[in-house]
């Protein structure tokens, strides 16, 4: 999720020094967490017996409780923030789709002279759908916003020559809607480009690894413990995966539906 040099993002195709998918990062998190548990079990056999007494266990439990609390707070905060970002961008897409329909209806009331502008709206929506929900699943991972079509559309609406007050009013309303659509598109682009940082992710993975090392350090070596560590590692890796996916709603597995734009497309030209 992670297009300027020196910036850090955490998802495939985005700007920065890291170019990995959420599945890959989730897998890395799982490897570090579960590997930390196995490492803790190995350390247990290598440490002297005096390091495994009850006082040592209490000290480790107290210190790891602090790390556990910080990890839980960070994960909860990141998931809530990612869900909020996902819902915001989903609402923006719905709002943009409704404005596209309204713009088309305003131009329809202008008259047949606005046919080229209305055709440009349809081309813009079709292009947006193809770019944002393409089969290669790159979506908004490109270094440009959805398209430059609002500028072409603005020029076509601006070039209209109103012959009466009604057409003049319709042109003014259409220009306002075109500007609003352009602002929304750039807003969606900028939100994608500021979805997270690698350092925060690295710190969180470090905390989780330290926790799992402490789990394995004093855990008995049996099937129940192995399965518990496995399930726990999978759970935290899924949490990281979910955060990355929700922060990039046009890329990856969890994607915003294109239904609002396709619904808008079905109403254009009527």
Number of strands: 0
What structural category characterises the helix and strand content?
mainly alpha
User: What proportion of the residues form beta strands (DSSP E)?
Assistant: under 5%
- The outline comes out as rod-shaped
Number of helical stretches of at least 4 residues: 8
Alpha carbon gap, first and last residue: 39 Å
- Output the radius of gyration: 26 Å
Flag low-confidence runs. Answer: 1-18, 137-148
What is the typical, i.e. mean, pLDDT? 83
Which percent bin holds the helix content? Answer: over 70%
Structure overview:
The chain has 270 residues and is mostly helical. The model is unreliable at 1-18 and 137-148 (pLDDT under 50). It has helices at 22-46, 54-110, 115-132, 149-158, 165-192, 198-217, 223-247, 259-267. It is built from eight helices and no strands.
What are the salient characteristics of this protein?
270 residues, mainly alpha
SSE arrangement:
Layout lengths: L21 H25 L7 H57 L4 H18 L16 H10 L6 H28 L5 H20 L5 H25 L11 H9 L3
Helix pairs in contact: 1-6, 1-7, 2-3, 2-5, 2-6, 2-7, 2-8, 3-4, 3-8, 4-5
Structure described in brief:
This protein is mostly helical and 270 residues long. The protein contains 8 helices and no strands.
